Prior knowledge:
Blueprint: H1 15-28, H2 35-40, H3 46-59, H4 62-73, H5 88-115, H6 149-158, H7 171-175, H8 180-195, H9 198-217, H10 229-257
Amino acid sequence: MSDPFPAVIETAATGEIADLFADIRATVGVRVVNLVWRHLATLDGALPWAWAALKPLYLEGLPDQAAIRFRETMMVPRLTALAGDAPVSVDDVLASYDHSNTINLFALGALVAWLRGETAGHGTPHRGPRLSAPDVTMPKLATEADVTSDTWALVLRLNRFGDSRQLILASMYRHLAHAPAFLQRLERALTLPQADGSLDRAIAANRAAAQEQVRVLARAILADRQRLVTQIETGVSAFVDHAIGKMVTICRAIRMARGLPL
């Protein structure tokens, strides 16, 4: 795949960017910094501005409360059973992404709405307790050089499910590349809902449901317009509409197929 959205590698970050990455991990409650934040770090001044705009929303539990309401009615496609026969690290990865992607869907979606001038004209974002982030250890984020050619080809095939455009390679599959046998089972499990359209329908329905809430959440953003507004909106919206937008549904479906407590 081409990489239209370059990103700073976490271990290579220094100075202010490293400090911001640490703050994002601590605030969002994750062990790895989502790719969208690492992409913003490549744009001069974009990451400090975007994080300052959204950190208050995370601290007040706004995206968490939106996620709770969203999950009450979200559409989850049915996959064949995926229980058992996988390293513990597989479930750790799934738990981490199920949490962070859903939270980021609302926080980053609110930023996109605000940047586009699509903030809701009325409505009050719900403040409340934050969701507990999973306390897990994440395996290495694999690159093509770290795995066999067959495993990397499998990662790329999985990335096609739910989004034929494949603008962004979803990091979750790279974190799961250490378990190729599980990825093979996952490919088989996703094939039917992709073929019968239920996967795409669920993703589209969940995106639409989330959009209603993010426009209200955008009312909580207090920031000055940034000079890189076009570049930031282009990058963040691509993640919200594609990688994060599809993986919220796919990850939840996988965890349910594994029979995990949610």
